[in-house]
Every structure is written in structure tokens, then in C-alpha cells.
Amino acid sequence: MSVVSVAEQMFYFLIPMLLVGSVFGQDSGEIFQNDCEEVGTESALNLNFDDPNKLQTSSLSDCNLNECHNVTDTDVIIDRKCPGDEKCSYRFFRCCQSFQSAQHTCRCIRGNLTSIHNQCTNHHIKQFVNQQCVNVGLVWIGVWKPNQCNGYQNVDGSCLNYTNWACGHPQRHGRKCTALNVKNGRWYTLNCCRRLPFVCAV
After folding, report:
1. H helix count then E strand count, the chain
2. Residue (of 36, 91, 83) closest to 56 by Cα position
3. Coil/strand/helix, residue 137
4. Hey, where are the domains in the chain?
5. Average pLDDT, consecutive stretches of 10 residues, N- to C-terminus, the chain (202 residues)
6. Domain 33-201 top-level CATH class
7. Where are the beta strands (DSSP E) in the chain?
């Protein structure tokens, strides 16, 4: 068998495998974060959130929003059921942070990672992020499972009265955090240490 024929066989074998992998990645919500500014704040903040309440009570004396340059504001009212108020504005942070750091950043601007209470809000947040940044696939939203004993809950303390889980989600074991796939609107549970862009409700 010639070297050329072996190379041709390898080529025809690898191409279908690559195509299958690409389709699987899109279906599972693992869309590449191509336009993502990495910001590592965990070491500086020394964050430890074994207690779920610490997401709301950690000190804000170390806020440094200058680390996050890619911020998009909107004053569009897209949900009249925001906790504690009749309206919300939203900020989309393109810089990538862990779930805990993202929530800390939201609190620094007197908000929280956004809670979503109906399909309309889910759709509008998806559209909002897509309009700002076409290369973002997943963003943190304010739903998490803090430990093995707790169920999923909103970080802002509001009732978790709406979900839009993807097939196979949510995961039930251990601490998990929730990301919105802005391509299909589905929710995916991920490791909370993963760095993603995020949306704050203010």
C-alpha cells in the first residue's frame, strides 16, 4: 500500500469524525467563547462560598471593576417581576469570570447575576447578549446549586419559578452553577469555577 493511499484513507476517516464532534459540541451547548477577556479575580478576592449566604454578604471593599473593560449597559425594561422592584436594567460583562466572581462583580454595582422568571425574559436576555457579542455562546445567570444538600436556587433570593433546562440537565450531584446558552436559550449546569461572560440585573 502506497504512502499516498494511506494518507487518503486517514483524511477520509478524520473528516467525518471532526464534523460529528462539531455538531455534538453545538447540541450540548459547549460553544466556544471566542470573544472572551480572561479576568482572574479569585486569588485577589480569596472567595470561599461553602455557605450560600456568603454570595450576598461577602465584603465589597475589594471591588475593582476596572478589570472588566467590556461592559454593555441596557435600560430596556424586559421584566416587571424583578425582585424588589418593578423594573430591571441589565449589564452584560464580556470578561470571563467564575460564577462566584461574577456574582461578586454584580454586587459591586448593586445588583446580582440575573434571575429569570419567565420565557419572555429568557428570550430577551438571549437576544440582548447576541446583539452585543456574536462570539459568545454561554453566559452565567443567577441560578446555582451551592452544595449536595441544597436544590437549585436564585442567588438574589427570589423564587425559582421558571427554568429552561437543556436535555440531560440539571445535574443533581455536588455544587453546580447555571449558564444560559444564548444560541438556543437553554440552561446548562457547569462547574462553578469555569470562566464565562455574565449578565447582571441592576
Report:
1. 5, 9
2. 83
3. coil
4. 1-30, 33-201
5. 55 48 42 45 46 62 61 49 62 91 92 93 90 86 90 94 96 91 96 94 88
6. alpha beta
7. 37-38, 71-74, 90-97, 112-113, 138-145, 153-154, 176-181, 187-190, 196-201
